[in-house]
Amino acid sequence: MASQTLSAAVADDPSPWRVSAVRAMAAAREGVRQAIRVIRPTARVLIVVTVALWVLGGVLGWRELTIAAVVLTVIIAACALLLIGRTAYDVRLDLTRDRVVVGERAVGALMLTNASSRSILPSRVVLPVGAGRGVFAVERLAPGASVEELFAIPTSRRGVLPVGPVSVVRGDPLGLFERVHRRDEPVDLFVHPRTVMFQGQTLGFMRDLEGLPTTDLSPDDVSFHALREYQPGDDLRHVHWRSTARTGQLMVRQYEETRRSHFVIGLSTLGSDYGTADEFELAISIAGSVGLRALRDSRQVDVHVQGRDLPAGTGRRLLDSLAALDQSRARKGRLEELAGAVAAGVPQAAVVVLVCGSTVDATRLRVACSRLPYGARVMAVRAQLGAVPSLRRIAEASVVTVGELAQLPAALGKVLS
User: Fold this and answer.
1) pTM of the model
2) Would the pLDDT of 331 be above 60?
3) Is position 205 within any domain?
4) Is residue 207 part of a domain?
5) Phi, psi of 318 (to 5 degrees)
6) How far apart are CA 283 and CA 304, in angstroms?
7) Which of 72, 138, 237, 256 is the 20 to 30 Å CA partner of 379?
8) Domain check: are 38 and 152 in the same one?
9) Can you give the residue range of the structural domain that contains 252?
10) 235 with 267, same domain?
11) Residue-wise pLDDT tens digits, 85-140
């Protein structure tokens, strides 16, 4: 706003003295704003009271009021003088790890250095972490000296916590005035959901002539591997006649099986699909565990939630996306609509896993599974805290109910068996 006013005034009268005057006024207004910013609410009340005492003492002639006004004036002036001083620290914020799992502690260090030629008086350093903040008391720092403050951040919930920016605070013991200087940029701390490892191919693959070759051998495919002797039952169309004529034995072609490996996870974020918030956290952990296994087994993984897709090209990107995921309170975008979006966005999906909560019944699951791409292998995982693991069939889909994350490997093992 000040720059716009300055430009308008200069445009009206571009003379040098006019430009200088307008710039001086803008600097004065900025100085007043900075001065007002350091006055805390308690000091503002105290200043009003002091002015009132001076006025009443002079009007009424009461020496007691005048003495009280003098005392308050001295106190306010003394507290204001404590703001004088440099706080030009060189600040370096270092997190040992910027990605942790729920329950782990993130450890970091805050390094403050006085790079000036004069000492810096004692001050406070504030380090915001998410919705909270840590406060460090820094003693007088001599020129060239450094001080290191270690801290630990407990992580009880999944999420992305902004750490910083570091603020250097100069103030007085009474808390009347406070001058804040920000000295560093914030750093994001990713708190990943808990995941569990399990062995085996993730729900298998779909055989597809346009897929990728694997190490599994097949008697009929497009990726040639080697020649072998004929065995009863082999297709005579794959006989290699030149090798047969040369060796005198019937030789047939052997192929590497090609598989389609497009793996899709549909994770519902709708609050009404879950009984509790902890159930939603269990669903996120299930999606993360299945996604990590799929990334080790296949070549491409997509994660869909209501209204958007999540980056899932690598394990880190997948967990970062899940860490930042919030529960949706909207009434639209139920699991059935999510399944339709998956079918429209990834029509060639080989395997689709739907992850939802306990409030999604069999009827809704049947409708959701019917909207998925034709020919894809479908599985639904229901997160229901405290439930006994179970497996049932709904149409062509396998529906697994999991009561806790540790049950997931055994539950998926039943599907794969």
Assistant:
1) 0.70
2) yes
3) no
4) no
5) -60, -50
6) 14
7) 256
8) no
9) 220-258
10) no
11) 666 778 888 888 889 999 998 888 888 888 888 888 788 888 888 878 888 888 88
Report pLDDT digits (tens) over 40-78. 888 889 999 999 999 998 888 888 899 999 999 999 888
Q: Tokens at residue 161, please?
A: 């916590």
The one-letter code for the residue type at 160 is V
Q: What is the CA radius of gyration of the chain?
A: 34
Does any domain span residue 206? no
Give the closest residue to 298 by CA, choosing from 205, 216, 223, 368.
Answer: 205
Point out the domain boundary residue: 81, 105, 126: 81
Same domain, 297 and 184: no
Verify that 406 and 281 share a domain, yes or no: yes
Distance, in Å, from the CA atom of 341 to the CA atom of 333, rounded to the nearest integer, reads 10
Residue 131 has which token pair?
């919705």
- The reply to whether 330 falls in a domain is yes
Task: Give the long-range contacts of residues 81-87, CB within 8 A, separation 24 or more.
Answer: 82/170, 82/171, 82/172, 82/177, 83/38, 83/170, 83/171, 83/172, 83/177, 83/179, 85/120, 85/121, 85/170, 86/116, 86/118, 86/120, 86/121, 87/120, 87/123, 87/168, 87/170, 87/179, 87/181
Lowest mean pLDDT among 5-19, 52-66, 69-83, 145-159: 5-19
CA 288 from centroid of its chain's CA atoms? 14
Q: Are 402 and 357 in contact (CB under 8 A)?
A: no
